[in-house]
């Protein structure tokens, strides 16, 4: 009876830049059984160093667009080599592999009820590169069809601790979740303010798409991720306002009749 | 009767940097039929923001090296969310998907007679990310073998508007088409000038390959793309001459007996 | 009798940035026979321009993690278009393709006894892009199962010339082999010094993992590659100490009772 090939989609997200992601792919390819075919997709390896908020946002932004059964290997891991745990997680038919520091949780939560399992760190693994020595082999196990319940004990994972947007005197406090390659600043605002807002004293034009603002005009829009996004038409809002993921901002709100 | 797997090569070219290209790949993988195998090749995601000239050049440089049947998804799209049309294009056995702003046209023209079809923007698509919501699904349709004629009405696409090189008093006017990672400046000159030339007063040594110039010496050569290329042996001509794609330059030409 | 598909893993390492690696992949895909399936893995395309030491290190760091039979296409090639030879190399069940300038040798040596063969430069190939015109077709030949002994005459390849670490008055002289994306400085020290060391007068805390140093504290550790690595916990040692691959450094060693 011919064995049907198993097709695995494996995504990778790190703050590693280049080189190290390739080592993780090499390890995965070494551990794959011959009837497993793999498609690798790099989500990004440009997360600002050790910025778990930005990594978690990017993962959450990407995962819902992948087919069920995809395996998401994500490593932004300032605590590598310390006692922080290593996890495999299942949610909504997707699998996640990475450190227990909140990185995986918003993405997993956004698509279902998550179950997290702690995996062992092999004795011979390096203290500085669990992506290669712990997470890549676990990813290959999942791609080969190993049952996640058998990979370790069920645990309660750490949450990612980002405060929800809230009204403050004079405006709305929000958190910068991500800066994209255009310098667009993606916040955790799920609805846009009702009244005109400014940031650091500079008014943000409320628009439907970037091109509705003038050239180099600061704007706020409901971005493609579904969150409030501060941008500059054909410019970089991150540079103009000097912002990084994890920064708190205050959107100064005018009073208006809503 | 066993179904043979269909193999699709899908290339991607954008000015998105990271993250967003992965979302497009996720959507394509979701829409692929199970018997379609895909190989993704990223051409580049580092096109200078909204620089259609650079994007069109990179696409034209890459496409002829890919096998027939390849599908090229290209998005450099300052007009996203406005009334600019969305296209699928067939030429020389290759397929192209992207915005109707000239981006796809030089590549498609360079390999055959093109036919362009307008595709619909689904009502539920975002105003800022047609790459994910419009172009990725169309790419998957083509990979699944959908006939391009059935994807929308035949239309006449917008051309890319780049003036041809021309003689001007004192020299030759050309356009910078692309800056590569080395800082080499690729122009639209199809033949090198017959007489010695300078740029901004600095002589360019005419050589066959970079190593034929001295270290850090400015040079002009017929590059691997078949166009006149201004480079600096082990240095960056783009930095030295402060150039960007779409810039016009004047190559100051000495008189000489040809 | 059904033909079994052949699966080829092809890695790519260059100093090309983007665009040019895609042209190499296109050429490989054009030359592949229909029953050959390929998985591309980009090791890195960010090697500092023409820095053969850094390229050789990255290749050596990555190759052991890939499965036997993998084909490693590596191009850092300041001598392109000159008389330097083009090579295919076999070692430890892996294959290598690239220029004869030392780039491939440390990786090949690290996994077995190497055999190197010179391949021809086709007459019609460009003088500036052997990656596309010479090395990519040779890579496809290997992926299609061509026997390496038939690809050209056996030759003795050039070595990479990096001096071994040595005791000097006041300390240990070593070479910087690689700077990773975190700015970690990887040296060619195979064992850490026994006594406390400083670099440019700044003490380096000897630790097991980055998080064992204080925030922004310079440190030295046995890195995941097995070499002495100078780092700054949550900072960039390369910036702090102004270092590049190929630089010589002196680790100033205190006297201590070992």
Task: Provide structural commentary.
The structure is a homotrimer of 258-residue chains. Chain A has 258 residues and is of the alpha+beta class. The first copy, chain A, is built from five helices and 15 strands. Chain A has helices at 20-31, 52-62, 105-111, 130-143, 237-241; strands at 6-14, 36-44, 71-75, 86-91, 94-99, 115-119, 154-155, 166-168, 171-179, 185-187, 197-199, 202-206, 218-222, 228-232, 248-253. Chain A has a seven-stranded mixed beta sheet with strand order 2-1-3-5-4-6-7, with helices on both faces. A seven-stranded mixed β-barrel of chain A has the order 9-10-14-13-12-11-15. Chain A is elongated and about 60 Å long. The mean pLDDT of chain A is 93. At the A-B interface, β1, β2 and α2 of A face α1 and β2 of B.
Descriptors:
elongated; homotrimer; 19% helix; seven-stranded mixed sheet; 258 residues
Major sheet of chain A: size, sense and barrel closure?
A: 7 strands, mixed
Q: List segments of chain A where confidence is low: pLDDT < 50 over at least 5 consecutive residues.
A: none
Which series of helices and strands of chain A comes N to C?
Answer: EHEHEEEHEHEEEEEEEEHE
Give the oligomer, counting copies of the same chain as homo and different chains as hetero: homotrimer
Distance between the termini of chain A: 68 Å
Q: What is the CA-based Rg of chain A, rounded?
A: 20 Å
Based on helices, strands and strand pairing, what is the structural class of chain A?
A: alpha+beta
Average pLDDT rating of chain A: 93
Arrangement of strands in the largest sheet of chain A? 2-1-3-5-4-6-7
